[in-house]
Structures
1.
Amino acid sequence: MDWNLVLVTVVTLLVAGYLYVKKKFQYWEEKGVAYVKPEFPFGILKGMGRTKHSTQIFTEAYKQVKGKGPFAGIFFFTKPVMFPTDLDLLKNIFVKDFQYFHDRGFYVNERDDPLSGHLFALNGQRWKNLRNKLSPTFTSGKMKMMHSTIIAVAKEFQNYLEPIAQKNQELEIKDVLSRFTTDVIGNCAFGIECNSLKEPDTEFRRIGKRVFELTPFEFIKFFFALMFQDLGRTLRIRATKPEVSDFFMRLLKETTEYREQNKIKRNDFLDLLLQIKNTGKLEGDDTDLGKMTFEELSAQTFLFFIAGFETSSSTMTFALYELAQHQDIQDKVREEVHRVLEKHNGEYSYEACMEMKYLDQVINESLRKHPIVDNLFRMCGQDYAVPGTKHVIEKGTPVIIPVYGIHRDPEIYPDPEKFDPDRFTEENVKNRHPYAWLPFGEGPRICVGMRFGVMQTRVGLANLLQKYRVKTCSRTPIPLVLDPIATVMSPKGGMWLKLEAL
């Protein structure tokens, strides 16, 4: 073997690779766009999933480029990414010029992973068709149908907490809240009594936790499939873990067959989807929505479950974390809960919960300070001339909207580290840019289940605060440290608080 030839070949390949990456990293500079200096070979993603949560990386980038134009450039490895920071440009992306940015660009592989074909990830006309089918299932009327189910689970939640509060025990509140929302979603989505509050190791709860647990290898595999989607589908990479997919497909097959064979009807999400699947319509509405396949039904129910239990439990976790540190605000919320319940004969009716305006302000401020979806993704579907500039964003360029950075911007929210629900009084909201608060996204792709998520969050917090005071303890994470491997914002080591019975 000619070792000199081998050495020359290796050196040539390394130099060629270096020059290729260097050229790629000049993309934004050549366009005259402000950008965050990339690091070889990660772009701006160095440390993500190991030492830093994505929130920290994108917020650091936001601080670097804010004010240097309506958008800046960043890199995911060698991939150039548009990074908008101007709120008026965000309005264009979300609404005015939505036709350029209607896709999120997420990885979908329905052949090998049917559960990946859900509303959040689908693109183009398929997303539009499915959105039209699902929107009628989340009207206020449909929410009222499910409200009584949430209240029933909330009563169990109150009872579960009683002996803990009587003993003045510390507890990892995020796990408890996840079990509460798992039981809510299990009932509202599947009509199944999960009982995870009483039995935390049930299969339903175990599988739900597994959805959001990523090993370093799984994190890399998922990100690879996201960046190289055609290759990912060729390699038959699945976005959903096999044990998760097998559990949900089996559960839905058994549940739907049992309901259809026995003509069982329930006021839950699955019942609404079965109506669409079998008739293309919802009862009492002549609108033809088009029928749905079993695989489509499964993917949407799966999305309802994973989005419904994790986001709401995390929102409640951060709200209680803030209320434990601000007893005056907690007292004010509790006074409102008692006042409204007294007016409604002690009943948590749908109307009563809707009257808890200050509680809503607390939830909104929690989502301002701790947005569970900390960054929003879009894909530029065709060449886009950025208004007011000479720049054109090329078709196929990913777009990252730094929600966390915007929510913590002192020019938008003075003293952003302060927890202040009065930021969300009617007057203050009117005086602020409408695209300065984005926990659910905006425009046609705003979260379709937003009403349901807020409803169960409102009910869960009201029921807890009615009877219990939340306090910090020796294990409360102050200051807050985020878990770098978590797919949504989560405190590292859990959220430990103390309950006191009133």
2.
Amino acid sequence: MHELSLAGGVLASVEAAAERERFVSVKMLRLEVGRLAGVEVEALRFALDAIAPGTCFAGARVEIEEPTGSAWCMNCNVSVPLAARGDPCAQCGGYWLQPNGGMGLRIVDLIVDDA
């Protein structure tokens, strides 16, 4: 379950921000996890909940956005929406696709408490 490792990375980033920006706790964390990122969103949510106790992240509300994927079709020479890796081009039905969006995991923003 690599989602636990990803959750640890998110927590490390949040703790580094807490030290740098001098806030005490996180009230809300908003993540963006692209549909082509290879991340099981519910497993990530579970992992974040599991590692949160005792950290500045304890009790935080987590919102996870899942932007759709996109890929460059080398047959059509256009960017097309892609729901999942391995799906065909929506225009020509071909499989000569280079994913170019919806592949990342990033922290979008935090709402924090500095008291």
3.
Amino acid sequence: TFVGVTSGLAMGAIAACGSEEQKQRWLPAMARLEKIGAFALTEPHVGSDAAHIRTTAKRVDGGYLLNGEKRWIGNATFADVIVVWAQDEETGRVGGFLVEKGTPGYQATKIEGKIAKRSVINADIKLNNVFVPEANRLPLARSFRDTANILKNTRYGVAWEAVGHAQAAYELALEYTTQREQFGRPIAGFQLVQQKLVQMLGDLTAIQLMAWRLSKLRDENESQITEGMASLAKQYCAAKARQIVALGREVLGGNGILLDRHIARHFADIEAVYTYEGTNEINTLVVGREITGIAAFV
């Protein structure tokens, strides 16, 4: 998640929508992890309906004043540059703004009490008359469509993240069933356990192949990956991974809820993967819009 935020989202936004000067200033240092990025889109009252964010950008002498709130922003408490998405008061369109670390009026507070991705530092952000110079506005971020193009690439990455959780759960479950004995034999020798393992492997193989195929297409020509293709991979892989991990935890029985068996960590984290970078429902509707030509969001 840390790498995805700083390289996929923050660097992706600057690479796709930034000026040459902005790219030269930030991207080489970020690629070396000398500078860390964050990507501030989600808000306390605006999640799935991200096209209607409430954070505003007001044009003033020499730049813009940003006001509003953001939520669930990874890296935001320590990032060197935060890509903040706000609605331009003049045009009504969503634009991107580079807020640098230490800018007055910017406050980020770590979110506590999470059951998933506990090592990831997410934050609530408050923006109170944060001044962003004109040079820090992303010139090619002209509408939410530009924002969506960046999310397309990160959803591809989250599909692989889901595959990783699923593969770990399968391997942990298989190892456990060959070692755990009940009724005088390893539980791997019971038909109902084998049925669960086979279902896990079948679904795992399917999502591995989907993510791999999308990667091959991306390597050949990144522009041929559509928003619907990326959303389908994220939606399908995350949903299947969630089922695989649940079956793996089930195979371990009571031991499946213990941290030292590790599968409980995947069981918690897959809930976050299933939800972020577009919920299951939103990604479903993105795919539905692409294959039918009809938007069913409202």
